[in-house]
Design goal:
Length: about 270
């Protein structure tokens, strides 16, 4: 059974090509033009059945995936690449570690879109770093947005290694790639501390002054804007204080229902 590919189908192909692998939830957020994600499950299944997409269950347990069933991962088929003019390659997109890295990057984009829908940021733009840009500066993505009346240009790095060559590339991104800070997201606190120590020990480093750290767990709990970030010296800070101040002002004006007493909410 043949179908007529529409504009949204080609947008799905473009997004998967950009991120390499995506979950249904990612695609729903990325193509949505409304205040909430669109439902596209049936369309993704049809594109899969007609060999436009490859689909399989991720091979390992992802710590941020909360259902017992492993998530369905979508990739482009050779036919979809041919239709879209995307070059074929021999990259193993079924490798679980490789997939996890790219899915985590897509999660960060989704978190920013959630912050946008909640009114915490505006004028949000996302650029996935690929090919030569990725090799040169070791960034996974660049983002720009307004928050609390301030414009930000940020480089994102997901779970990087702590080798000296990569850190030097990240440092050069601050002077050569149009960003003002680097956000480093790690999978656990041990990896974060190792990177903080390495960067803090770099002599005369601009990276140490302009990079900030958080774990995936912290970001999934608090969001990209409200999270408690740390600098290279392991000091916690509110990286976007105006957004936090604004939320605190709004919370101060919320009146509890009659008969309900205000109470502290655990973090």
């Amino acid at each position: 059974m043949a179908i007529q590919l529409n504009e949204r189908d080609h947008l799905i192909f473009k997004l998967i090509d950009e991120h390499e692998v995506l979950l249904e939830k990612h695609i729903s957020w990325f193509i949505s033009e409304e205040d909430k994600p669109v439902l596209i499950r049936d369309r993704l299944r049809k594109l899969f059945y007609l060999d436009y997409l490859l689909c399989h269950r991720h091979a390992t347990k992802l710590p941020w995936w909360t259902t017992p069933t492993k998530p369905l991962v979508y990739m482009l088929s050779p036919m979809a690449k041919s239709i879209s003019g995307i070059s074929q390659d021999e990259l193993d997109r079924f490798d679980a570690k490789w997939q996890r890295h790219h899915l985590e990057v897509a999660n960060l984009r989704m978190l920013y879109l959630i912050a946008k829908n909640e009114g915490k940021i505006s004028n949000f733009k996302w650029t996935t770093c690929k090919t030569e840009a990725r090799k040169q500066f070791c960034l996974d993505a660049k983002v720009s947005f307004n928050c609390g009346g301030i414009a930000y240009d940020i480089g994102l790095v997901n779970n990087p290694s702590a080798d000296e060559a990569m850190l030097k590339s990240l440092e050069s991104s601050l002077s050569e790639n149009g960003i003002e800070m680097v956000l480093i997201i790690t999978r656990d606190e041990d990896a974060q501390i190792e990177l903080q120590e390495k960067i803090a020990a770099m002599s005369d480093s601009t990276l140490a002054k302009h990079c900030f750290f958080a774990t995936h767990q912290e970001l999934y709990k608090k969001g990209m804007i409200m999270a408690h970030w740390q600098n290279a010296e392991c000091r916690p800070l509110n990286l976007f204080p105006r957004a936090i101040e604004e939320q605190e002002r709004e919370s101060a004006f919320i009146t509890p229902p009659v008969g309900v007493q205000p109470h502290a909410v655990s973090a």
